[in-house]
Amino acid sequence: MKFGTAVILAGGKSTRMGFDKQLLKINQTRLLKLITDKLEEEFEEIIIVSNYPEYYTDFTYQVVSDELPNQGPLSGVHVGLKEASSKYVYFLACDMPYVNLDYIRFIKEEIEENDVAACVTQVNDKIEPFNAFYSQAIISKIEAYLATEKRALYSLLKRLDCYYIQEESARMFSPNLNMFLNLNTKEDLLNYYKDLVS
Ligand SMILES: Nc1nc2c(ncn2[C@@H]2O[C@H](COP(=O)(O)OP(=O)(O)OP(=O)(O)O)[C@@H](O)[C@H]2O)c(=O)[nH]1
């Protein structure tokens, strides 16, 4: 059964890619469309956070802009949580092409059972901030954190009551962990294409 909200963050500067990643096309189709088609299977609500709503006239989803702009990904997490109609909200970056619905169902259950601030995956010592769930309970904490002129999502997560899924569990769903891959550079894009045709 479909339920809950998925938010796609598409408000970044794409400096490393050199063109706006939210417009990225894979074989003539917007990556955003490929992502939302997949998320549609699991979520009853999809929200796109973009500061260019005019890029989404072909989409039927709600498009919202940052309420607290220029704070990086946390700007998007903040407004996404505020606009979502479910307590636990799934977040994905607009440049993450490998949507894994089985893993999404797994982490959704984890955050519901544990009722924590966020459910994120830890790979080596690194926290994967997307392909993760956050709770609306942290909206005021994000606001307080941004008010101190800090904006690093990782440091905020460390202060919160998070549930960390370990790498071995994640690999059971995605052996090469490509569900965390994001396309930051043209080289990433090239490797992704090579992967698609192989
Ligand atoms: N809404 C919103 N999303 C953001 C913002 N900054 C980054 N993001 C999103 O957060 C995710 C991760 O961002 P990055 O890829 O690290 O940053 P980026 O700005 O897109 O790219 P670079 O300029 O190359 O670092 C992407 O989905 C971005 O669209 C922002 O200020 N607002």
UniProtKB/TrEMBL annotation:
Domain MobA-like NTP transferase: 6-160
Domain of life (superkingdom): Bacteria
Biological process according to GO: Mo-molybdopterin cofactor biosynthetic process
Keywords linked to the UniProt accession: Cytoplasm, GTP-binding, Magnesium, Metal-binding, Molybdenum cofactor biosynthesis, Nucleotide-binding, Transferase
A GO term, aspect molecular function: GTP binding
Broad class of where this protein is predominantly found: cytoplasm
Gene3D superfamilies assigned: Spore Coat Polysaccharide Biosynthesis Protein SpsA, Chain A
Keyword check for Hydrolase: no
The keyword Cytoplasm is annotated on this UniProt entry: yes
Compartment list: Cytoplasm
HAMAP family: MobA
Its job: Transfers a GMP moiety from GTP to Mo-molybdopterin (Mo-MPT) cofactor (Moco or molybdenum cofactor) to form Mo-molybdopterin guanine dinucleotide (Mo-MGD) cofactor.
Free-text comment about domains: The N-terminal domain determines nucleotide recognition and specific binding, while the C-terminal domain determines the specific binding to the target protein.
Family statement: Belongs to the MobA family.
Protein name: Probable molybdenum cofactor guanylyltransferase
GN (gene name): mobA
